[in-house]
Design a protein that fits this description.
single chain; 497 residues; alpha/beta; Spore Coat Polysaccharide Biosynthesis Protein SpsA, Chain A; Jelly Rolls; six-stranded antiparallel β-sheet; five-stranded mixed β-barrel; 23% helix; globular
């Protein structure tokens, strides 16, 4: 992948880009799932939101100064997801939260690490799932923000409202007050998400801005602000620092890591906006010159994607007649719509969403019902990407599951066994190299092999073309965590295929 050089490509060794990537984007269900969250989807632009975020900042800071903050259970999938960025991906650092505790703990933990590395460094904190198509304007505004951060201010970015939005928090700026850095505005207060009538008054008042959730500050400054406004969080972060850095030789000691997880799970679940930004008197704002959307719901696409003559956004295998101002996302299956108005229709192989556009913010309620019901449609798609390829669940029933497995050229799965299921493989395209206990043999197109329960096995593709097999599983338990690994090319420790 070739990255276009920006006029801002003069890497700054003391600036660090912190990308927050722990969310799941439930309001973009059914396209987003727990295992395939919004930041890993290509919704707008030519790449996924996470990879766009990395490319936006790469060159402005060196790749080793790009740190991704996410939870342990998502880190591995994200690492595989950014592999296509090649040499950049190899240098990116990860901060892994034992569990999600909101943005204040995540940023505080990252600041602890970074402060030990470079005490006077500047942190650029960015969500991984925002759409910012105007890179040059973003980087110019970022230069201004860094000037303010170096003078010990907490800097945020305000977006000039284009509509009376009720789904965003707002910033009220003081336009009459001068600041130390020309172009920055003093923050008067932060405002919670308003009702529609209040949002209309904000739209007509040039002192109100949308809160973008993008921040810039010195590491030392954010830590001092956490100490002042969230003393309990600060105290626990310092305890965690003592655990992780008191002796670098024991950082991988299971006992210390378990104590770290216990302490981190006790941290208050609080956002950086509420915990720090709304309480601090050292906040300034950049009035952003770039187009921005946090893509908080399907209706947010209205400002980011080109529409047809009827005001519709159509993607995928669609036929539409006479609809207006609607959003229709289809996959391979044909979705035909007739005379819709202000609607959202999103189709995936295992779930379809139909909702009035004005209620798109409520999609999270569907995900909550799915979770309470124990259904898996909020967790995974029928097709699941893996570092070695992908698998698609074709059918499942009592005691059986049928998958189509596609393995990349020269790739192989881990050496593994299943305690509660057997597997029968039929090669439909390509040639498979199969390891079964002490045997290794080839299985060609239109041939099959059987792997009993409790049998060590491995599947490989030795060829230069993709390998496709049909896998039939039988057993009393067919979930992905019935796996024990003995060797793996991808360093996976979790129990997934």
């Amino acid at each position: 992948m070739t990255l276009r050089r920006s006029r801002h490509n003069n890497p700054r060794p003391n600036i660090y880009a912190i990308i927050l990537a722990g969310g799941s984007g439930v309001r973009f269900w059914p396209l987003s799932r727990e295992s395939s969250p919004k930041q890993m989807l290509q919704i707008v632009g030519g790449d996924t939101l996470l990879r766009q975020t990395i490319q936006r900042i790469n060159g402005f800071v060196p790749p080793e100064n790009i740190w991704i903050v996410t939870t342990e259970d998502k880190a591995q999938d994200i690492r595989f997801h950014i592999e296509s960025l090649r040499s950049i991906a190899e240098k990116i650092q990860f901060i892994k939260e034992p569990s999600g505790r909101n943005t204040a703990p995540a940023i505080g933990l990252t600041a602890i690490y970074l402060h030990r590395l470079s005490p006077e460094s500047v942190m650029v904190v960015m969500p991984s799932d925002h759409a910012i198509p105007e890179k040059e304007n973003f980087l110019s505004d970022l230069e201004l923000a860094i000037q303010g951060a170096k003078k010990n201010y907490l800097i945020t970015f305000g977006i000039k409202p284009s509509r009376p939005e009720t789904g965003y928090g707002y910033i009220k700026a003081n336009r009459s007050s001068k600041t130390e850095v020309k172009g920055l505005l003093k923050v008067k207060c932060f405002v919670e998400k308003p009702d529609l009538e209040t949002a209309k008054t904000y739209l007509s008042d040039d002192s109100y801005f949308w809160n973008s959730g993008i921040f810039v500050w010195k590491t030392s400054k954010i830590l001092s602000e956490i100490e002042k406004h969230l003393p309990s969080l600060y105290k626990t972060l310092r305890e965690i620092e003592g655990l992780l850095f008191s002796d670098l030789n024991v950082r991988n000691d299971p006992n210390i890591l378990n104590r770290f997880k216990d302490r981190y799970s006790c941290l208050e679940n609080i956002s950086i906006d509420y915990g720090i930004m709304e309480r601090s008197h050292k906040t300034l704002m950049v009035p952003a010159t770039f187009q921005w959307s946090d893509l908080g719901s399907w209706s947010a696409l209205d400002e980011m994607i080109v529409k047809d003559d009827g005001g519709n956004i159509l993607r995928g295998n669609t036929i539409d007649i006479g609809s207006q101002d609607s959003i229709i996302f289809a996959g391979e299956r044909l979705i035909a719509t007739l005379g819709l108005k202000d609607m959202v229709v999103v189709d995936t192989p295992d779930a379809t969403l139909v909702t009035p556009k004005k209620r798109a913010q409520e999609v999270r309620k569907i995900v909550e019902v799915l979770k309470r019901s124990g259904r898996e449609e909020h967790l995974i798609h029928k097709t699941v990407e893996r570092p070695w390829g992908s698998y698609t669940v074709l059918e499942k029933g009592q005691g059986y599951k049928i998958k189509r497995v596609v393995i990349k050229p020269k790739a192989k799965l881990s050496l593994q066994l299943h305690k509660r299921r057997s597997e029968h493989w039929v090669v439909v395209a390509g040639e498979a190299r199969v390891t079964k206990e002490d045997q290794t043999y080839l299985v060609r197109t239109n041939e099959s092999t059987y792997i009993p329960k409790q049998t060590r096995h491995r599947l490989e593709n030795p060829a230069d073309a993709p390998l496709q097999i049909i896998e039939v599983q039988n057993g009393d338990y067919l979930e992905e965590d019935d796996i024990e690994r003995f060797d793996d090319d991808y360093g996976r420790l979790t129990n997934d295929q």
